[in-house]
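Recap quiz, item 2
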Amino acid sequence: MAAPESGDGNNGAARMVTLISSDNTRFEVEAAAASLSQTLQLTILDGGGGGGDGIPLPNVDSATLSKVLEYCIKHAPAAANGGAPNATAVDRAELERFDNEFVNIDQSVLYSLIMAAHNLEIEGLQSLVAKKVADMIKGKSPMEIRRTLGFPDPTPEEQAEMNAHMLEYGWAYE
Amino acid sequence: MGTCSRAEIMRWCLAIHPKGLCCLVFRVLPKLLDLPRSLLKKFQKDEHLHEHEQEMESGTELGNLPELSQDILMAIFATLEIPDLLRASSVCSSWHSAYTSLASLWQYNKNQTPCLLYTSESAGDNVACLYNLAEQRVYKLTLPDPPIRSRYIIGSSNGWLATVSEACEVHLVNPITGQQINLPSVITIEQVKPIHDNSCSTDMYEYSWRTGTEEPYTPSIFSANVLQDRLFYKAFMFSNTSTGSYFVVLIHNRFGQPHLHGSVMISGLGCHHTLAIWTASIWMHYSEEYPPLKANHAYFTDDSELWLGGYKNNRCDIGVFNMDSNSREELVSPRLWSNWPTPIWITPNLTNM
């Protein structure tokens, strides 16, 4: 069985793959970028996603997928260098700046991204969004966290459960 | 309970968005068929709940929090310092179960920023204060008896303190969880023999100065609280992650041995420094691992027993040493701690033994 083109861009045009969002929008993207997704990597290595086929992603809507791909395209070159051990400080600073700006988004978009990053298994994006949520939690009381993240007000039963948990490590709530 | 089971099930159904959940049920049904019938029922029930929740929340301007799976919650929680993690654990039952799973994992403490553990007269005899470098704030933890302010603190490893009480009992205590473990009695040490004397109300011990090869002095008679001061020097704890077992190494009989100096390799930003330090406990900072700490700085405390032993009011040296400018900085000003028991660095850990 012939191996598909590696698509690393060294022999002419980079190999492209097509991803199809849940609302049927087609995204054409370099295989190297899409391969940041562990979930897609095997399919792409097997030659999938090329030509008219496209890989359907029934769990990701087009708004989320375009955001995910923005991340992948930006991070693909560094990932291709094996996590960029040779990257200059400037490159690293640029990626960091990009990341900070990237997660400066509405909470609903952030939540969709969390789920997409997890399901597509994009490691860097998973930690980036996890860190963003962690930053939103830091220094806050349980009630403040609930308000920040848009939880509904707790029912009396939930409130009683929260109080019981808070008693367990009372010092952390002073 | 409903929230928790829903979150677990979400892992299987790979839902991206609550809205998409309905159609996804059909996609993941084959997967679910392998699961027990009860779970399938639960799923149906929770699915119904979810729709209800959506209706209720549809007026809010904030993004609605989807039910994050336990895996995702654990990934988020793993980046938190323990006080933040504990507060997050009380948010709802699903978050609490993610916290419980995370706490049960041995590796959890790897991302914790070290804290300075100290006591102070005003906080109370049983209270250990934890100065959290990441948050630059103090937490006050009440520890089990005997009072922490009456104990010697002889070591700190893996989030556990090793202490010696006035009755010369050695304890391991985890200040975060409050769990305390008694180590074997002091008389199990070869050089220590109990003296049974009914006329004396306190426990007395005969202490031999014998080392491996010689006995430089005649044995001494010590009461427990004198032995507390004289016997122990340091304790270290090691763990075997594969078996979950722990080892505690005690260094004692220090006056019979050549005096120990610590030597520590400190790395930072590509250059290496070796510091000879005088019986101090020091915390080294590798720049990438603990962002709240400053790179190329050594965080130190002072437990020189020649300076502090028997002189509990002597000022102990605590601060941050900047290796770039070769200068010393204060950790926090004004000083928060009593000089004794000597403050010590500790990396908080939620593990119980």
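Chain A is about 55% helix and 5% strand.
Chain A touches chain B through 48 residues (CB under 8 Å).
End of item.
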